[in-house]
Description:
- The protein is an alpha/beta fold.
- Helices cover 51% and strands 11% of the residues.
- The chain contains 13 helices and 7 strands.
- The strands form 2 sheets. The chain has a 4-stranded parallel sheet. It has a 3-stranded antiparallel sheet with strand order 5-6-7, with no helix packed on it.
- 32% of the residues are buried.
Amino acid sequence: PDAPIHMHLAEQxxxxxxxxxxxxxxxxxxxxxxxxxxxxxxxxxxTQMQRAETLPLAHSGAVAGLCPxxxxxxxxxxxxxxxxxxxxxxxxIGSDSNIRISLTEELRVLEMSQRxxxxxxxxxxxxxxxxxRVLYQGALKGGAQAAARDSGAIAPGKxxxxxxxxxxxxxxEGREGDALLDAWIFAGDDRAAAxxxxxxxxxxxxxxxxxxxxxEAGYRGMEVAAAARDYEGFYTADTDxxxxxxxxxxxQLVQRLAGIIGTVLGLGFQLQKQARIDLTAGLPAHYDVLxxxxxx
Length: 296
């Protein structure tokens, strides 16, 4: 009963119009009137809220789960981050369509969208914290809350979810504090993340995940097998690829899917073999995954 609740809400104009026609109320209005929205809730997008909806939803303690790259790509609209944060609202950052996975870019797009809409600068900054500080710490707090994970800050008793930046990079050199966060988010990119720990596990070192080579080996094996029309070899390499990606997630629930994936892939390849389907057709999607892991 205490688990997080995640739900998409008020993302597109057509969605709002359809809900209003069916229920006589806008999505946020209906939700607040019919559910006990608390800090357990993470409401995704919320790009079509009116001010009268933004403030009470922010006061509810729910997390606004924002995907600024996706929302820009789909033309969903601009989340009112200024009103939300000034009302004490909590936000987290994620990726929806996965066309581009980048923490710094998500945060940058969030701030830039506020500037474009309101024709101002440093829209989310406060007198106490720079824009980068507000964005990064806000995303840490909201992400931990949305995932019900005891992290989001460096403090006794918290999970050791840590990122170390390579401050020898030209865009970060000589900077510290808020200036360092501003430079990373607005001038740098995710490649500055040199070391990453998840619950104390050192999962990225020197900017490289320890399972990267295994994932790439699986992909290269798929290339060789596809060129030779070797369906069994392709199945073996593809299974190795997916199992390595699942293992790299360090998510116990996801990792339990490894056996199921092997079975599903096996059935799929038997059908592909019977139909003599071109194995190279699946390579681009797998390469995108490999490239995304390599470039993060």
